[in-house]
């Protein structure tokens, strides 16, 4: 369930998780408030990145565990994980579990200076609130 909320500029993955406009996966504390009372760990943040290598290689998907840290390559390790965030999120728990295993192993890592960071969401399915979507606005522009 991937939903966009233009008011908050966030993308909901499910009721427990969302990605903000910077591509950072966060927990929705509204739904996890009672759950956190019984947990001894604090929620962790990780940043999903779409990027290309400086030598203009293909687009890849990776995770950065803290600001400025190395990037753990996800899509470069296995072809079964897509190289863009939209398809990754549509894959749900299956892709998330694969990503967790890849992150735990951290076999393929690149430095942040070795890549060109791309927009968090490339090739979106829909672009909302563009004036040309509305016929009356199109007529005004002529």
Automatic annotation (TrEMBL):
Keywords: Hydrolase, Metal-binding. Coiled coil: none annotated. Gene3D superfamilies: Fumarylacetoacetase-like, C-terminal domain. It comes from the Eukaryota. GO terms for molecular function: hydrolase activity; metal ion binding. InterPro entries: FAH, Fumarylacetoacetase_C_sf. Belongs to the FAH family. This is Fumarylacetoacetate hydrolase domain-containing protein 2a isoform x2. It comes from Triatoma infestans.
């Amino acid at each position: 369930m991937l939903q966009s909320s233009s008011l908050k500029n966030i993308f909901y993955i499910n009721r427990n998780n969302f990605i903000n406009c910077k591509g950072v996966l966060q927990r929705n504390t509204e739904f996890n408030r009672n759950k956190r009372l019984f947990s001894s760990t604090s929620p962790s943040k990780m940043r999903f990145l779409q990027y290309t290598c400086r030598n203009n290689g293909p687009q890849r998907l990776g995770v950065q565990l803290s600001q400025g840290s190395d990037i753990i390559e996800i899509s470069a390790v296995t072809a079964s994980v897509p190289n863009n965030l939209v398809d990754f999120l549509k894959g749900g728990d299956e892709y998330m579990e694969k990503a967790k295993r890849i992150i735990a192993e951290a076999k393929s890592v690149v430095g942040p200076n070795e890549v060109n960071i791309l927009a968090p969401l490339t090739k979106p399915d829909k672009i909302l609130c563009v004036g040309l979507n509305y016929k009356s606005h199109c007529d005004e522009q002529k």
